Amino acid sequence: MDQTTAVVKDAFDRVTKKQKLHHSVSLDIIDLVCDTIQDTLSRIQLGNNVGLEPESVLAKLRQKLDALLPTIQLKRSQKETKLSLDKLVKTFESFYHPDISLACRSIGFDIPLVNKILIQHCYREGLFEVGDCLVKEAGEEEETEVRSQSFEIKQIVESMKLRRNIEPAMRWISANRGKLKEKSSEMEFKLVSLKYCDMLREGNRDDAMKYARTHLTRYCSGHLREIQKLVTCQIWIGKLDKCPYAEMVSPSSWDKVTKELISEYYHLLDQPSRSPLTVALSAGLESLPTLLKLVDVMALKKEEWEEMKQLPVPLELGNELQFHSVFVCPVSRDESSKENPPMMMMPCRHVICKQSVIRLSKNCASRRFKCPYCSAQTSSPACRQLFF
């Protein structure tokens, strides 16, 4: 744990400790007040029998509550909690840059395109009313096809997650069997296996065996080994967690297969499994710390962030945000093609396009040149073509 994280964690722990103490003190005060009121009610009921005046009993209650000072004690405890919370906020502000707008650049947005991305994101997230409202208020064309597709996959996913029902998914597979076969999809077998495993977890040995004979045997040609393991699991009914193949029959398989189904659904439509807005926000969030540091460094050097044409530092993103369908040469700004493929320079492994290699080497195989990124020496024969 680095020093920054340790300081923030200590501040957070102090807030947590104060909050727990405030909660405990509040409960104690409330219990005392309730006990005092309950005792007063008992005295009033008893006083009715012996002729005791209720006014005198209530006066004593007021004196006891004044002595307890419940409101003052609660305010004091709350104030201490608020002070520790304010210190936590200041700690965050001292270590983390609160103004992320400094990492933004003034660029022109294609408003219709942005609206389209927002509308499609709403549909993908199941926010159909919000998407419809945005279409109407922005005056954009209706995304009928996207809405229909999003509604279909939403129903399929909800059936699987909420009711463990694979029938809607199986109907989709049946309607797209040809395309799925071309892509060597195994989704149908996985769905049938989920249903079979549910029967095992419910202890229905006979039903599970009957289901396996009726449905699983159809996939023996390509999944014989998996089917043998699944059938063996019947021996462990009632104690599947101790089964050698416990992972195969785990309830968590439903979430895993559901995610794979969503990916295959959109892959069949030649669309990404995650909405472009989600991907863009994820990439931006991951890049933000580096960009904020870069802004601070540039301010010290009195350089203008807005005037930069390319970033002087690499942005390390996760594997899920690595896309290589198009490569743009950082030197020439040209997209790669069959005639101008991306080339990796050895030994530094930086990548530029073939035409840039030719220009830097002046079309001479024996001529050595410097890498535009790190100034490492290389030559055109030492460059290797990359295939994405």
Number of structural domains: 3
Q: What does the overall shape look like? A: extended
String of helices and strands: HHHHHHHHHHHHHEEHEEE
What order do the strands of the largest sheet run in, or round the barrel if closed?
Answer: 2-1-5
The unreliable regions are none
Number of helices: 14
Distance between the termini: 37 Å
Radius of gyration equals 33 Å
Helix-residue proportion: 55-70%
| Main sheet attributes: strand count, strand direction, barrel closure | 3 strands, antiparallel
Q: How many beta-strand segments?
A: 5
Mean pLDDT: 85
Kindly estimate the percentage of residues that lie in beta strands according to DSSP. under 5%
Helix and strand composition category? mainly alpha
State the gist of this model.
Residues 329-374 form the RING-Gid-type domain. By secondary structure, the protein is mainly alpha-helical. It has 14 helices and five strands.
